[in-house]
Structures are given as structure tokens and as C-alpha cells.
Amino acid sequence: MSSSNRTGSSPLTFILTGIPGLLTSSYWMALPLCCLYLLMLLGNCTLLWMIKTDHSLHTPMYYFLSMLAVADLGLSLSTLPTMLAVFWFESTSLRFEACIVQMYFIHSFSAIESGVLVAMAFDRFVAICYPLRYTSVLTSSLIMKAAGVIFMRGICVVLPVAVLIKKMPFCRSRVLSHSFCLHQDMLRLVCGDIKINSLYGLTAVILTKGLDSLTILLSYTMILRTILTIVSQETQSKTFSTCISHLCAVLIFYIPLISLSIIHRFGKHLPPLTHTLLADAYLLVPPVLNPLVYSWKTKQIRKRILVLLCRRGPQQQV
């Protein structure tokens, strides 16, 4: 059955969906999307450039922040081609192989971003609970090894998902619910036994985002216990303020992710627009907001931006 789907006169293609109930060629939607992508590129590339050029930012916290920016760039750029194709050029068809590649990169970078958030939680845990051992624990060697493990985990865990779904027969409607390819969305179009695919997909989610969220929760439980032992309330608030940016990044990433997972499994009766908006929020909101959150809440980055603006001001006046 699988071969009959792919060896015919026309290759297997999927039909992407823009926003349910609206025309595909919605330029009023394409323009905000382009602005979001430009804002994402500007924010994350600026963060990477500042961390690279400013030696005062060559610390573990900012190395992890640069990894987060790379993951955000990868996540957004994975959806960029099809999102703009659907809304700008009314191109809704996508080859099966291209859909699998896009799905692989979306889920890989999502797993990588989740791992980076765990590493950042560990950074805050050591900095607050064991401040005297911070530099000896978070060495350059450890950071490089952690980066390698995080990226390899994201690459390897998602690879079987792509391999398994590539062998599945698609003989139902080939209309996807989004303007990009997600594993859950592709899986519902399979006409065959999907128990192995569903089981491995669930296992992969548990081993990545499930364990990651529990690890982050455990880290902040230990951090709060340490903060509560501090006598001075002013010192407590200052110590906790160093975690605000990371907590915002965690909430921005996990709330849409968990909501989307729940809706895909239990919210089939909900209108299609709900699925679309949550998926878009899951893939677009974190890469756009993370640079803004860290620029707003981190003094070093905020000062660096102010210095750059002050330098440009006199040059423009001259």
C-alpha cells in the first residue's frame, strides 16, 4: 500500500493550510509574519553578535544563552519557507520528502531548545546554591560537552520518528492542519497501524521534554529552598531576579508546547483555528520573545545595547 502511494504518475504531496476560514492569499497575515521573522532574526543575531564580541559576556550563562539563540533561529527558519509560501505565494502543496525534512528539523530544534533550558536551569542552580564552586563546576570543557550532548540528543532522538513515518502509507486526505509539517499532524493521515509510531513519538517526548521539565522543576525547587534560607529580603529578591529571564523563557516555551500536545490528543472536537493558533504560538512566539526578555531583564545586555545606541547617536549627528 505504501508503494502504491509513491510510485504513481504523481509524487506524494501534502496540502498545507493557512488559517482556517480565511483565504490563503492573506497579505494582511503575511506582513505581520514577515515582521515577526525579521524581529526574530534581528533579536537572536544581535544576541549572538554581542556575546561573541563582548568579552565581559564570555561566561557560562551567556554561552547557554547563545545556544538558546541558535536553537530559536533553527526552529523559526525551519518553518519560514512554507509559512511564507502559503501566505505570500499561495503555494500550498509540499512534497512528501520535503515535509519529512521540515518535520525532522522542527522537532529536533524543539528538543534542542528544551535541553538548553535545562542547562540554563543548572547554571542558575549552581550559581545560587553553590556560588563558591560556580567557576570550578561550570568550566569551558563542561559547557562544550553539555552543548554536544544537547545537540546530539535532539538529532538522534527525532531521527527514528522521521524514519518510521517515511515507511507509512498515506491514503486518506492529505490536507495538513498547519502551514508546516508536524509529526502528530502527519500521523493522523496515515491509513495503517500507527501504534509503533505513536509509542515511539510519546517515548521521545517523555525522554526529552518530559524529563527536561521535571529537571527544571527540581532545580527551581532547590533554588527556592536556598533563597528562603537567606535572611535579608532584599538579598532574596536580588537573587531571585537573576532567574526571572530564564523562568520567562521556560514558560514561553512549555505553555504552548503542553497546550498543543493536549489539544492534539484530546481536543479533536475543538475548532481547527485553535490548533493553528497554538501551533503558530509554539513555533513563533519563543524565538521572538526570548531575545526581548533577556535584553529587558539582563543588565549586561541592556547596557551593551545602550552603549551601541549612544555610539550611533553622535555618529549620526556628525
What would you say this structure looks like, in words?
This protein is mainly α. It contains twelve helices and two strands; from the N terminus they run H-E-H-H-E-H-H-H-H-H-H-H-H-H. The chain has helices at residues 2-6, 27-53, 60-89, 96-129, 134-137, 140-166, 183-187, 195-228, 233-241, 244-266, 272-297, 299-317, and strands at 13-15, 93-95. The relative contact order is 0.13.
Brief write-up:
The protein is an all-alpha fold and 318 residues long. The mean pLDDT is 84.
Number of helices, where a helix is a run of at least 4 consecutive DSSP H or I residues: 12
- Radius of gyration, taken over Cα atoms and rounded to an integer in Å: 22 Å
Question: Pairing-aware structural class of the strands and helices?
Answer: mainly alpha
Low confidence ranges: none
Into which percentage range does the β-strand content fall?
A: under 5%
User: How would a crystallographer describe the biggest sheet?
Assistant: 2 strands, antiparallel
Total count of strands: 2
Distance between the termini: 71 Å
Overall helicity: over 70%
What is the string of SSEs from the N terminus onward? Answer: HEHHEHHHHHHHHH
**Global shape:** globular
Q: Reading side by side through the largest sheet, how are the strands ordered?
A: 1-2
Mean of residue pLDDT values:
84
